[in-house]
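User: Sequence recovery, please. Input:
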């Protein structure tokens, strides 16, 4: 294979990039006041010169911080930016447009998309637009972050750290809240399904479990909190799941037991054992960085209770099951079917949002990923799938608002504070929410575990009183999430 700096490789990579975007099908011009995606994500202001683009597919793996971005003057990366920019400009001009709006259907700022398309914008601005004539309105990205000034401050930090194109606008909007509302307004019919949701947790009741704790993919912070719960012997009080390969081909009735077991063992090692003494260098470094005081004891508790931990399979139907795929009213955002039953049996929910850890980079923490040592570009290396610092709410939160359940939110610091400022009501003093203001990730996680333990020790009589006291807040939140709020956006310029 040619090396990254050679033209044949670069051309092939650019072709794969454009092919992955399915340009002819997905890149559409809208004459529009609005983007007709996911029930009108955001209203634009009457302009007719926008070229609306929704890059729904991921960038090729070759375009990544440890590869083509590893060199400040990478020919490969620069050529991909150039070829993509020329393609975009060509198709925009066919429609007589010169303002680009990218709808980033994401759960928050994602590093690769943010940086790559920022560089494409820079190329277009310098190559095709007279510099004195462009403004930030020529280049806009719409992200699924909370529409709050705190995300402006985070973006300013990202702009400086990752060398983003400053002459572009950012629009933040609660994308997953909008999708939840869209489901309520459109997918659900006006009769029995709506009535079932309205009746859910409508009045105080004694319930068999204290908490409901969903976990799909075994991300680092999720596994840690499951370990805290098992270590404290709190699992007996709740309904809890952890996907350790149950829907990833690991458990396939068509292959033999030995192959199934090997797949499960690999996932177990990658999710638990790699962080303990004897694990791999990355896992040990990650544990030392994120949970230096408590991590070893917590993950050792999982190893000591391996059979229990591996029994925490997904609750109800798997999201990826054929049955679930064919039933849009029981989608991952709705509170029907299995989830309706789970929510009726538990007093409170534990939510692990997409973003929990603060960003670390190869420059600030070179010991975490030695293979990135010495590359010129600063890139994030947090275990949050490269979601950058910022506050975002997904279906993980909104579905429990629909279910009228109080919750503990394992998320980025100040997430509850921002939620309140957007009109929602949270649950203090019945739930101690001091954890929300703790900046240190480990300290915040421990405070969350402590509060879960306290809530589990409350009697049914205590919970009847709490339910009664919180019901007005829960009804308020339910009414808010089912109200059309598509105009709630926050727009700013990076520069």
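Assistant: Recovered sequence (495 residues):
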């Amino acid at each position: 294979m040619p090396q990254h700096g050679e033209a044949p490789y670069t051309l092939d990579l650019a072709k794969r990039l454009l092919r992955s975007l399915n340009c002819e099908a997905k890149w559409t011009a809208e004459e529009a006041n609005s983007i007709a995606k996911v029930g009108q994500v955001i209203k634009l202001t009457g302009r007719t010169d926008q070229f609306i683009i929704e890059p729904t597919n991921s960038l090729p793996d070759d375009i990544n911080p440890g590869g083509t971005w590893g060199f400040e003057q990478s020919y490969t990366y620069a050529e991909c930016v150039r070829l993509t920019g020329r393609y975009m400009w060509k198709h925009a001009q066919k429609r007589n447009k010169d303002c680009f709006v990218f709808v980033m259907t994401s759960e928050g700022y994602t590093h690769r998309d943010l940086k790559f398309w920022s560089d494409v914008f820079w190329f277009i601005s310098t190559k095709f637009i007279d510099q004195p004539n462009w403004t930030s309105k020529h280049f806009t990205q719409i992200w699924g972050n909370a529409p709050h000034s705190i995300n402006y401050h985070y973006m300013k930090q990202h702009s400086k750290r990752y060398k983003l194109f400053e002459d572009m606008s950012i629009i933040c909007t609660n994308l997953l809240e909008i999708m939840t509302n869209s489901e309520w307004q459109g997918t659900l019919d006006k009769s029995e399904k709506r009535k079932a949701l309205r009746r859910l947790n409508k009045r105080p009741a004694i319930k068999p479990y204290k908490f409901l704790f969903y976990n799909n993919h075994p991300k680092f912070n999720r596994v840690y909190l499951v370990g805290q719960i098992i270590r404290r012997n709190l699992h007996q009080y709740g309904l809890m799941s952890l996907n350790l390969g149950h829907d990833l081909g690991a458990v396939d009735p068509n292959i033999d037991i030995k192959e199934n077991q090997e797949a499960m063992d690999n996932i177990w090692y990658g999710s638990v054992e790699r962080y303990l003494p004897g694990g791999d260098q990355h896992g040990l470094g990650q544990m030392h960085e994120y949970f230096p005081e408590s991590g070893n004891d917590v993950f050792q508790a999982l190893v000591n209770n391996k059979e229990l931990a591996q029994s925490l399979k997904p609750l109800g139907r798997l999201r990826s099951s054929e049955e679930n795929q064919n039933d849009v009213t029981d989608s991952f955002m709705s509170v029907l079917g299995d989830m309706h039953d789970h929510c009726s049996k538990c007093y409170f929910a534990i939510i692990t949002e997409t973003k929990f850890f603060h960003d670390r980079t190869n420059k600030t923490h070179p010991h975490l990923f030695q293979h990135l040592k010495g590359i010129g570009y600063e890139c994030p290396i947090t275990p949050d799938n490269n979601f950058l610092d910022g506050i975002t709410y997904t279906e993980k939160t909104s579905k429990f608002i629909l279910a009228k359940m109080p919750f503990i939110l394992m998320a980025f610091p100040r997430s509850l504070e921002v939620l309140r400022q957007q009109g929602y009501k949270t649950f203090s003093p019945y739930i101690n929410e001091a954890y929300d203001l703790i900046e240190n990730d480990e300290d915040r996680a421990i405070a969350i575990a402590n509060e879960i333990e306290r809530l589990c020790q409350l009697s049914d009589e205590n919970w009847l009183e709490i339910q009664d006291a919180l019901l007005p807040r829960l009804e308020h939140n339910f009414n808010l999430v089912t109200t059309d709020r598509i105009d709630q956006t926050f727009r700013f310029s990076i520069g």
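The chain has two domains: 7-173, 185-355+390-483.
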